[in-house]
């Protein structure tokens, strides 16, 4: 299959810009847009009410999608989640619940560790549901249920559109499980589906204002280390933002849960380390803002990614501000906030003259252990 870059300089840029479309397409596959409810293209062939927990395993960015989905599965489906990276999970000898549900996540569907995690789960009587982007892949073939991400081929080694499509599938799955388990009312489901349906439009809005990210990227490109902070679903997003920056620019970066700051990383704070704070308007905004102020009080180099109301609430000196739409709020804001994290890493890499689509030492699909 021949995929071209269109008018973009890099595949990654094209794939970032495709997100409103491919996330919209993925959502349309899992939702009934007319009634504003979830409608999965497959039936659960396990008893959703009898589940006590879900196990999730994946690698890299796909793992972060799972980590983020944990917040949704716990909140909307009242399912506890055991999640681990596949290279650890496969050897942990984890006891698994009888007739439990295992979800594996993989863009390529060929990642060796994720496949091994799947096979372990199958051997231990789990129903395996895979969220994959390649329908013909080994992981898809060996799963009981396949939930496709309709991202289209992803060429850039750094995963972008596959990630947001994985989030879209997980969001729909969490709502469907919530309904099937009788813990989510139809009214609440409709409110949440409306939020999901709004995300592609919000993504497009963020992409339209891409130029604002360039000065922030030039600033970050001078650093030798960068910290990403987030709370709730923004915590896995902080991990993902740090991974993107590492892969693309070779700048050391770490993601941290904002509330964990004072348990160690706050010792790092000085003006040489940019601190990127992901602060969507969600249930934890107030707490995130207070963590931001802790950084500000120590002379930190703050870059805020959030709505203007967060900037006003922070009332702190900012070295950079990536303004996000006020309406990118609530439980699924992470789908929209993934974009500035991707764009920042992309522009830092371009500015530094790195190989954006093919970073050193990395392979698109890791088929060996
Ligand atoms: C993401 O930017 C990475 N290149 C990498 O972490 C990737 O997500 C991981 O290797 C998993 O790949 P998969 O989704 O194809 O299984």
From TrEMBL:
Record: active site: 364 (for fru-6p isomerization activity)
Keyword Cytoplasm: yes
UniProt-listed Enzyme Commission number(s): 2.6.1.16
Domain of life per record: Bacteria
Keywords assigned: Aminotransferase, Cytoplasm, Glutamine amidotransferase, Repeat, Transferase
Subcellular location field: Cytoplasm
Catalytic activity line of the entry: D-fructose 6-phosphate + L-glutamine = D-glucosamine 6-phosphate + L-glutamate
Enzyme class label: transferase
GO cellular component: cytosol
Full protein name: Glutamine--fructose-6-phosphate aminotransferase [isomerizing]
Natural source organism: Methylocystis heyeri
Span within the parent record: 241 to 609 of 609
């Amino acid at each position: 299959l021949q995929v071209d870059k269109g008018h973009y300089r890099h595949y990654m840029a094209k794939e970032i810009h495709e997100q409103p479309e491919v996330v919209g397409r993925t959502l349309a596959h899992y939702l009934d847009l007319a009634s504003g409810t979830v409608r999965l293209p497959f039936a659960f062939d396990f008893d959703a009410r009898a589940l006590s927990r879900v196990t999730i395993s994946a690698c890299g960015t796909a793992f972060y999608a799972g980590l983020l989905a944990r917040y949704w599965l716990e909140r909307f489906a009242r399912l506890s989640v055991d999640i681990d990276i596949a290279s650890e999970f496969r050897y942990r000898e984890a006891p698994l619940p009888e007739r439990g549900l295992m979800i594996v996540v993989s863009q390529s569907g060929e990642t060796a560790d994720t496949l091994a995690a799947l096979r372990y789960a199958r051997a231990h009587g789990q129903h395996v549901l895979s969220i994959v982007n390649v329908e013909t892949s080994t992981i898809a073939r060996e799963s009981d249920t396949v939930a496709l991400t309709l991202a289209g081929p992803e060429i850039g080694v750094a995963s972008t559109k596959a990630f947001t499509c994985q989030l879209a599938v997980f969001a729909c799955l969490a709502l469907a499980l919530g309904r099937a388990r009788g813990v989510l009312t139809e009214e609440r489901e409709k409110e949440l589906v409306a939020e999901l349906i709004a995300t592609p439009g919000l993504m497009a809005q963020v992409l339209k204002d891409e130029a604002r990210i360039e000065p922030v990227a030039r600033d970050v490109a001078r650093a030798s280390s960068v910290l990403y902070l987030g709370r709730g679903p923004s915590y896995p997003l902080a991990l993902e933002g740090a991974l993107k920056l590492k892969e693309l620019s070779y700048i050391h970066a770490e993601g941290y849960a904002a509330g964990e700051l004072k348990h160690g990383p706050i010792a790092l704070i000085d003006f040489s380390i940019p601190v990127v704070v992901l602060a969507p308007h969600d249930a934890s905004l107030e707490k995130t803002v207070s963590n931001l102020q802790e950084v500000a009080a120590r002379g930190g180099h703050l870059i805020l990614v959030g709505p203007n109301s967060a900037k006003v609430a922070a009332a702190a000196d900012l070295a950079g501000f990536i303004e996000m739409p006020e309406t990118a709020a609530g439980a699924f804001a992470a789908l929209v906030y993934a974009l500035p994290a991707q764009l920042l890493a992309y522009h830092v890499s371009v500015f530094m003259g790195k190989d954006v689509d093919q970073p050193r030492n990395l392979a698109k699909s890791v088929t060996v252990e």
